[in-house]
Amino acid sequence: MLRPLSSARLQFTSRFWRHSQRHVHHKHPIQPPHHVQSLAFSSTPARRFDSLMDTTNFTETQLTVRSAIATLCSKFPPSYWQHHDATETDPTDFHAALAADGWLGIALPESLGGSGLGISEATIMMQTIAESGAGMAGAQAIHANVYATQPLAKFGRREQVEETIPRIVDGTWRTCFGVTEPNAGLDTLRLSTTATRTQDGSAYAISGQKIWITCAQVARKMILLARTKAREEVGKPSEALSLFCIDLDRNSPGLSMRKIRKMGGRAVDANEVFFDNYVVPSSALIGEEGQGFKIILHGMNAERCLLAGEALGLGYAALNRAAKYARERVVFERPIGMNQGIAHPLADAYMKLEAAKLATYHAAQLYDASTTDPSIKQDAVGIAANSAKYVAAEAAFTACERAVLTHGGMGYAAEYDVERWLRECFVPRIAPVSREMVLNFMSEKVLGLPRSY
Questions:
Q1: How many angstroms separate the CA atoms of 132 and 46, rounded?
Q2: Alpha-carbon gap, residue 149 to 139, rounded angstroms
Q3: Together in a domain, 185 and 164
Q4: What pTM was computed for the model?
Q5: What is the CATH number of the domain that holds 56?
Q6: Of the candidates 291, 308, 330, which is a domain's last residue?
Q7: Are 303 and 441 within one domain?
Q8: Cis omega (within 30 of 0) on the bond before 166?
């Protein structure tokens, strides 16, 4: 399932902080996380994570990442997430803790403050965060930092990248991803937010609206997709879109936000963001004008892998909690787990999660391998990543629903966490692409059926 990493990749913890001495943007040099530094790859096994997931065939690097993240997350127990969910307040100190240990750059180049690891390691990090009890809220607090920076790192100008990414990695700046619009939905090629060049060419004026922008309230930067030409002015609709890395300067005219109250993941904000001739310098453009859609495709498959991992974490957390309750809860003088009406649905949920796990880490491995192996086609990566996102989201929903039902009336109580996880498990079923659009993609790309949309 998971191909062993090269010996160079296995040495990532010694390289993880070494590069920090070379970057002037870090206020404080990144120090090796003590809980990672003490793990010797050659002989010391990673600490066992309290999980139902079988970790056979995971690489030593992946297990070390999992152990280190589990240790960090243990400082933020479920009560922490219950509080932030109830008060709808950002988990700022959680984000800071991950930044302090250098984890926000896990899949970014060393030269930019990252660790130089792959999406496989980033996926297991995101899974472990969700599985720790943080759920989707904990994962979404750093989600954009991991995947939205990928297109910037690959296609941005040197000065643009060196100014921005190290500050995101060290936690100085947070970022968000601005693509979705209320009148376009999943039809990205029809988005209407415009970025119009000023007469002297030194800036763009942005006008339009974005919606469901996670962490916009706390973000300093936004990776923004906007229209720089009308559809009829270009040969392909995709050539009318450009990608920008913009400042979210709330003191400048033309920018406003409205927070959206939502069902789950309340610890992280979701927003409508409004632009009205909001001016950004032309240097905010990522890559070439008109290539924005192609550029964001670079990050989409990575995001699907990460979201699949987050869904897995949510599902395993819920199932673990349900199994524990079923062993301990006694009704009619016997633990309820003795009843097949309880045991069988939970066993079925476990097998669904394990199957989704195989799909998820196959997709992540394929994504990583495709960055250096030209024989791996992007269609194959897309099929694997979309499949993983779909099956992991469905497995998580099954586990979370059954966890609530296993708890009976107490499943409705906030203190048991399973109701929070059930509310959050709808996110990977809906975003970043719906189940139905994944099925459309598979029908067309795999089965060769006529396109239905």
A1: 16
A2: 16
A3: no
A4: 0.90
A5: 1.10.540.10
A6: 291
A7: yes
A8: no
Residues 144 and 260 in one domain: no
Rounded CA-CA distance 9/5 in Å is 6
Per-residue model confidence as pLDDT tens digits over 223-253: 999 999 999 999 999 999 999 999 999 999 9
Q: Tokens 């990493």 identify what position?
A: 5
Alpha carbon 261 to its chain's center: 21
pLDDT of 71-101, one tens digit each?
999 999 999 999 999 999 999 999 999 999 9
Whether the Cβ atoms of residue 245 and residue 156 lie closer than 8 Å to each other: yes
CATH label of the domain that carries residue 315: 1.20.140.10
Residue 2 lies inside a defined structural domain of this protein: no
With contact defined as beta carbons under 8 Å apart, do 13 and 37 qualify?
A: yes
β-bridge pairing 285-286 and 221-227: unpaired
Residues lower than pLDDT 50 in the chain: 1-48
Element (H, E) at 233: none
Owning domain of residue 58: 7-169
Radius of gyration of the chain (CA): 22
| 191 φ/ψ angles, rounded to the nearest 5 degrees | -65, 150
